[in-house]
Amino acid sequence: xxxxxxxxxxxxxxxxxxxxxxxxxxxxxxxxxxxxxxxxxxxxxxxxxxxxxxxxxxxxxxxxxxxxxxxxxxxxxxxxxxxxxxxxxxxxxxxxxxxxxxxxxxxxxxxxxxxxxxxxxxxxxxxxxxxxxxxxxxxxxxxxxxxxxxxxx
Amino acid sequence: xxxxxxxxxxxxxxxxxxxxxxxxxxxxxxxxxxxxxxxxxxxxxxxxxxxxxxxxxxxxxxxxxxxxxxxxxxxxxxxxxxxxxxxxxxxxxxxxxxxxxxxxxxxxxxxxxxxxxxxxxxxxxxxxxxxxxxxxxxxxxxxxxxxxxxxxxxxxxxxxxxxxxxxxxxxxxxxxxxxxxxxxxxxxxxxxxxxxxxxxxxxxxxxxxxxxxxxxxxxxxxxxxxxxxxxxxxxxxxxxxxxxxxxxxxxxxxxxxxxxxxxxxxxxxxxxxxxxxxxxxxxxxxxxxxxxxxxxxxxxxxxxxxxxxxxxxxxxxxxxxxxxxxxxxxxxxxxxxxxxxxxxxxxxxxxxxxxxxxxxxxxxxxxxxxxxxxxxxxxxxxxxxxxxxxxxxxxxxxxxxxxxxxxxxxxxxxxxxxxxxxxxxxxxxxxxxxxxxxxxxxxxxxxxxxxxxxxxxxxxxxxxxxxxxxxxxxxxxxxxxxxxxxxxxxxxxxxxxxxxxxxx
Lengths: 153, 504
Known about the structure:
The complex is a heterodimer of chains A (about 150) and B (about 500). Chain A is an all-alpha fold. Chain A has helices spanning about 5-30, 35-60, 70-95, 95-110, 120-140. In chain A, helix 1 packs antiparallel against helix 2 (about 35-60) and helix 4 (about 95-110) packs antiparallel against helix 5. The termini of chain A are far apart. Chain B has one domain. Helices cover about 70% and strands about 0% of the residues of chain B. Chain B has helices at about 15-30, 35-45, 55-80, 85-100, 100-135, 140-155, 160-175, 200-220, 235-245, 250-265, 270-285, 295-305, 315-320, 325-335, 345-350, 350-380, 385-405, 410-425, 430-455, 460-465, 470-490; strands at about 180, 185-190. The longest helix of chain B has about 35 residues, at about 100-135. Chain B is globular. Chain B starts with 12 loop residues before the first helix and ends in a 12-residue tail after the last helix. Chains A and B meet through helix 1, helix 2, helix 3, helix 4 and helix 5 of A and helix 7, helix 8, helix 17, helix 18 and helix 19 of B.
């Protein structure tokens, strides 16, 4: 099996599994009246998911670029920072502090400027601080949104 | 001429300030590659919470209009369309810029956007009341089929594979059912506490549109974005206007094509621009010049993508069916303010509806004025390095999705949907049908359940949903849209609607 076909087969299988699960839950959950519409949609979704799976298995599915190993390696650090930021740091450290921190980290990871250059760090920190102040002005002062404060703010 | 009596609302200080801010901000956002009109409007929705409904809609409407036009700036100067709607603009616009006609290309793009936009809004003004009356004939079964039509049309047309387009639509419909059932109060598909209140439309929209862009920016890695600046030479606006009028055939084709496509629920601006460009080329006496920096190409594409804006709101305001993905986000903005578009919108909220529409008319004129003014500066915005853009959009997405209900659950859902959409997009699934499914799901289900109750008291569901001229007409449209896409796929293969690569 070619890697391209395998790449299409994995999402097709996942979508099919999701469709089958939704269909199973729709037909087994009660009260039946609440699941009337979900049953209709789940049936259509399963039919389309089987069709999509068959196309992927037969190697007919050609749409989409899929993932390359290089892309996955490039996006992995950024995605890890995003996940840590959203699921842990935002509440733990506070929205504004963690946002400034994450801004600097992401900027540093993907900034082509050398990490040994103090000027580039000054630039990163200044832009992150300015952007955080802008966010504070917009959300806390203008829109009165109460964000989680955490350890800092 | 009822709309004339509500023009005063547009010129109130706060409304005018929002209109100006939305127009200028929209032009800058539109000129920023990666920030589509849909994403710009989705990001602005949280800012409207503190505003009155009319003011909020003025801001969103101005941003919608000007982001579509602003996208031409990066398309012309950098050959990177600011939004999908500007793909066709890049084809000749960038060639004009390379030929030393950057200012001319920018001027005619804003001027033709303005002409197309004004015609589109006038159609919205004059056709909406007629269609609103016509919409009174729609019962639950018709509205159910209309919602399904919206999902199938966009699933068929705005996707690279029609099976995956329809599957995306179904996924969106399923996502809309998560949470408590409105009638029985039963729990449906609640796998985690964050899903107890269902999926908030706005946080979902932010996640689906913004997060994949952030990840795409990550994917570029540590490289300096190859953005080459072009000199923007002096060009008289009057000379540009004469150039536009000289090419009135392209202007007419673009305006008509955009207006028609806008009315059809589910067809986006990128299709309007490409279709108009294609037709203008076919009907031009100078076919060979297309692609080499011909003003007709820019005029047709830009007049079409802005002419689409007004008419795309006609099905939204009369039938609650968005005509474009951005109109779908606007629907979310209306619902948040407790305004339900439909037959009685113009009776119950005439102030809101007409002031909003009038503001779009004034917004088109402001867009042309400010567009021409900031054209020379806009190139600087497009030069924002990718890492700053990625970090900025990420932080803005977090704040935006949290501020909706001040709930971390919305933020988690936003991120999960965003990462999921990025992965799905890599395998040919489109965001637009998924979003439409998510938004139209509650409308389809409410009318399906209501229709079912009516049917149980009468001749049964089959008779209620499948009989009657309007039901049959809508069912035929649903079947036709699917059949056409199926046929196209069979004839041309999966890539029939794939977007041409225009980025450098």
